[in-house]
């Protein structure tokens, strides 16, 4: 506090007049002879026109950016956007263009997809749809599902799912065909 007062060229008497705090109290605060309270710090910070954090030498706030390492599995790149385990999980996913047969899976949970770019094919139960940039889908993951980029190029999308969605996928049983179809 003394450093800030001296940088501003103020005397203890001038600071006392500006804050209504006695010179002796200000002197003890600066020398460490008195513990600062919020009632004392706020008028001093106002008089010096500095944030309270600067007045008390608070450590800087940590960097708020999420710096997660991408996870690559089977050609799919997933960038975690949440850091805490459990609860809702969010990922940015980059899905390469694929060919081959979809292999629907089921697991506990609920998922939400939002396509950022490209074309994302979603097979969900009886539905087979292609989502494009700006489109979203949400579904119960206990319904057999599969999603991937169409063969036309990669797709980027956001994926959100609840804590049950972290479990490993298990193969969905194929539907039994009735005797008259096929």
Label this structure with key terms:
three-stranded antiparallel beta sheet, single chain
What features would you describe in this structure?
- By secondary structure, the protein is α+β, with helices and mostly antiparallel strands.
- Helices cover 21% and strands 31% of the residues.
- It contains five helices and eleven strands.
- The strands form three sheets. A six-stranded antiparallel sheet has the order 1-2-3-10-5-8, with no helix packed on it.
- β2 and β3 form a beta hairpin.
- The longest helix is centred in the N-terminal third of the chain and has 11 residues, at 38-48.
- It starts with a helix and ends in an 11-residue tail after the last strand.
- Mean pLDDT is 84; it is low at 165-171.
SSE topology:
Blueprint: H1 2-7, H2 12-19, H3 23-31, H4 38-48, H5 52-56, E1 71-73, E2 76-80, E3 89-95, E4 105-106, E5 110-117, E6 119-124, E7 127-132, E8 136-140, E9 145-149, E10 155-161, E11 170-171
Antiparallel strand pairs: 1-2, 2-3, 3-10, 4-11, 5-8, 5-10, 6-7, 6-9
């Amino acid at each position: 506090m003394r450093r800030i007062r001296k940088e501003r060229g103020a005397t203890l008497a001038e600071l006392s007049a500006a804050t209504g705090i006695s010179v002796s109290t200000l002197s003890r605060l600066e020398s460490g002879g008195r513990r600062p309270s919020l009632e004392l710090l706020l008028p001093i910070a106002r008089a010096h026109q500095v944030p309270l954090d600067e007045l008390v030498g608070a450590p800087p706030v940590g960097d708020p950016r999420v710096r997660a390492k991408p996870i690559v599995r089977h050609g799919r790149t997933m960038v975690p956007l949440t850091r805490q385990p459990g609860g809702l999980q969010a990922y940015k996913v980059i899905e390469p263009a694929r060919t081959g047969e979809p292999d629907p899976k089921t697991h506990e949970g609920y998922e939400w997809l939002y396509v950022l770019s490209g074309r994302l094919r979603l097979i969900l139960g009886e539905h087979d749809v292609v989502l494009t940039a700006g489109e979203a889908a949400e579904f119960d993951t206990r319904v057999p599902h599969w999603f991937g980029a169409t063969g036309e190029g990669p797709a980027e999308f956001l994926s959100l799912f609840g804590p049950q969605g972290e479990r490993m996928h298990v193969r969905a049983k194929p539907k039994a065909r009735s005797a008259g179809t096929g």
